[in-house]
Amino acid sequence: MLKKLAVALGAALLVGGAAQAADLSGAGATFPAPVYAKWAETYKAQTGVGLNYQAIGSGGGIKQIKAKTVDFGASDKPLKADDLNASGLMQFPTVIGGVVPVMNLPGVQPGQVKLTGAVLADIYLGEIKKWADPRIANLNKGVKLPNLPITVVHRSDGSGTSFLFTSYLAMKSPAWQQKVGANDAVEWPTGIGGKGNDGVAAFVKQTAGSIGYVEYAYAKQNKLTYAQLQNKNGQFVAPQAANFAAAAAGGDWSKAPGFYLLLLDQPGAKSWPITGATFILVYKQQANAATGKGVLSFFDWAYKNGDGAAGNLDYVPLPAAVKGLVRKAWTAQVKGPDGKPVYASR
Amino acid sequence: MTDAVSDLSRAIPKGTSLDTPFRLLCGAAATLLLVALGGVLVSLAIGGWPAFHKFGFAFFTTSHWNPVTDVYGAAGPIVGTIVSAILALAMSLPVAFGVAVFLTEFCPPILRKPIGVAVELLAGVPSIVYGMWGLFVFAPFFAEKVQIPLMSAAPPGSIWETLTSGIPNGSGVLSASIILAIMILPYMAAMFRVLFHNTPPPLRESAYALGATPLEVVMSVTLPHVRRSAVGAVMLGLGRALGETMAVTFIIGNAHGFPKSLFDSGSTIASTIANEFAEATSDMHTSALVALGFVLFLITFSVLAIARALLGSAKEV
What we know:
The structure holds two protein chains of two kinds. Chain A is an alpha/beta fold.
């Protein structure tokens, strides 16, 4: 009797679920959470399908999708192709952001100071200790730099921002690569750790002569004193939306297996050197075709209609060519239980 | 007589029919608590086992915490936890004592209630608020009014110069300890107050009758009477300081090595876990963080056990 009741109840729930398309669930990175929330709000109004996104951090997102408790995971730090294959996941980028060095130098205007990756690495290694150091002065002839000791500020919490920043330093400095390496948390040779972008910004604001790094959106909204960086073409560029987009356009996504691509030090006259995408993880083999279709439809919709919202929140939308590549990968890789693609490109 | 007994025996079954389930329910609630405690301990031990196994005793004695090479030594956070908690206690104890003595010995009755409420309100402020306040309000003030004067006043080459070296931006071990001291103050003040209040009035009154001053009464009558319980109350405050997370994370500077001075950055066990757990992807990193949790559990547990033992024996004194 009880069993029958349970079966009937289950069936009723299933029918109910099918009639009113199930909400999607995702978890992971905090960096893109505001734009995912904005997209979800508009998407729900248009289609009736809601999204429950929990911003628990990239590490948590990877763990949750591997434990199959969510429909998709989100991570600022892309998984390598062999890791993706081992766990049967596919990954694709959604929006682009960047990391900006910010400083507190009395009398210096935003964008006045120019730095290179190698000098930035030496500052973070603790080898350049003063703003008056000749290696900084040589890059900044004509700028009056205060003779202050440099206070290094970094993130204390594990973060995709730190991952991009340390990956860039490792790329530009063999000493950094050897002594510290790249990760979302590292053993910092020097400096103090602030929690989150606002923790870093607070320490930078409070300490004359300090340097830190924050997400682009955060630096822009809080009007922090940023530095110009030298890119691969030798040009000094400012952190602006157009320069992030230039870096994204310069990236060769078609040759990146599993879309594993850090947009660091990309060629191009305008490319900002510390740029990176944030990623979504889904299973290639979807246990439930409707769920897989739901997730991909949401991001397809976001690719089509979400660029404006992303731009308003100071994220940089993906270039159209990259979106095309991602759509192709969806069709080729994400299959339902019947082996057919859950996403049909239109 | 017989009638009365039979009346009683008729009345008893009504009560006893509910008595057994009630006893079982209460027993289950108590057992559940013990099982949960044991479960936490066991799961922390299992989760931390890979780290304990790989690094062995070096986990407790080395201070390299490197998520890139997956090498973890917890000495920095362990020392930071104990140092910040003890500094906090040292600052908070005299004030808490003063508050309690004032409330029991000197306070005009009209002020007793407002001050008591203020102490309780202080205890009710969420710790994240202390953290934000510490970072945005206290740290700039502390840097300007305390750190910079102290650093410039320290004679070169003296121990003071070593103690006050660092970056004068208001963060660091001492700042974190001060915030912690403010946070544990209300707990200790409230406990002291109850202890002092429970000193038998005849004892204090006879001391006053013999012509003792309030200072003498506190020092030679009240304090000796509550000595052991007071140590227990202090230990409870210490237990709270050891486990405090968010407020400390905001202001301690979060460097994994040993703090070299009072103004240097440090880290505590709780702040390290809060900082890194969400983004820890490698298994060894997660395991090392869980192992840290296990260590914190043991430290807090032993402190609370000592407190319990001292508080429990208070009645015999």
